[in-house]
């Protein structure tokens, strides 16, 4: 990635929460940011396309639109994902498979399609948004934890397969982040969660976004196959 010409950056699920913070941070770095969204509306100030990561056809169509309008995306942030939490004894096949399909297979569909352009560019960044629970597990999140754990093996395989072409692949693993979802928790539960984190607080979406910006930058050119925790120490050693 050259310093002079800023890249096209693609952020899946970039219309709210952590994805939007990542999009804003990459835009502040001077990149041309394209966000994808499945439902709702596109955020103002960004190029945007609709994409359903559970459909290869939708992913292909979105990439074709991006490439024809703006060019080849060089920074790929696979952020789109879902949760369907529940105790394992009550977790249906559909609850398990739909989360794997969106979070893990969805990230694969996006990275696989992006690789076509990255191989032409002979450079690029694949950045997967994982989770601390991919390493430490979480009661009620067998499906989500499995999907996020799987990202690491996938990213490391991409790193080995594509490294000789100047393409890196890394996983960023957030801990508990201030989002609409965590804001809805009652104060007692929020305090319990914060107390379990060595730094004693939740993470801001902006703190995740700044690490993505670093991994997307020339400064991280020799980092690949890494799991980068941004979790306040919650998952240390994992």
Automatic annotation (TrEMBL):
Entry's Gene Ontology molecular function annotations: oxidoreductase activity
Gene Ontology biological-process annotations: monocarboxylic acid metabolic process
Keywords noted in UniProt: Oxidoreductase
UniProt domain Ketoreductase: residue ranges: 7-196
Pfam family, one: adh_short_C2
Record has Oxidoreductase as a keyword: yes
Family: Belongs to the short-chain dehydrogenases/reductases (SDR) family.
Name used for this protein in its record: 3-oxoacyl-[acyl-carrier protein] reductase
